Amino acid sequence: MRLEFTDEEQAFRDEVRSFLRQKLAPAISEKVLNGYELGREDILNWQRRLHERGWGGMSWPKEFGGPGWNSVQQYIFDEESALAGAPRLIPFGIKMVAPVIMTFGSVAQQQRFLPKISAGEEWWCQGYSEPGAGSDLASLKTRAVLDGDAYVVNGQKTWNTLGQYADWIFCLVRTDSNAKQQSGITFLLIDMKSPGITVRPITLLDGGHEVNEVWFENVRVPVENRVGEENRGWTYAKFLLGHERTNIAGIGGAKRELARLKRIASEERWQGRPLIEDPLFAAQIAQVEVDLWALEITNLRVLSAERRSPAAGPEASILKIKGTEIQQAISELMMRAVGPYALPFRREAMEAGWQFDPGRESPGPRYAATLAAAYFNQRKLSIFGGTNEIQKNIISKMIIGL
Amino acid sequence: MNFEFSDEQRQLHEVVERYLGEQYRFDRYQAIKRSAAGWDPEVWRGLAELGVLAITVPTEQGGLGFGPLETLAMMGDCGRSLLLEPVLASAVIATAALRAFANEAPAAELLTAMATGEKIAVLAHFESGARFESQWVTTRARKAGERYRLDGHKGVVMHAGAAETLLVSARTAGEAGDAQGVSLFLVPRAASGVTLDIYPTVDGQRAADVYLKGVEVPVASRLGPEGGALAAVEAALDIGLAALCADAVGVMQALVDATIEYVRMRQQFGQPIGRFQALQHRIADMLIHLEQARSMSYLAALRCTAENVAERRRALSAAKAVIGQAGRFVGQQAVQLHGGMGMTDELVVSHWFKRLTGAQLMFGDSDTHLQRYAALSRA
Question: Could you say which of A43, A118, B10, B363 is the most buried, measured as most Cβ atoms within 10 Å of its Cβ?
Answer without folding.
Answer: A118
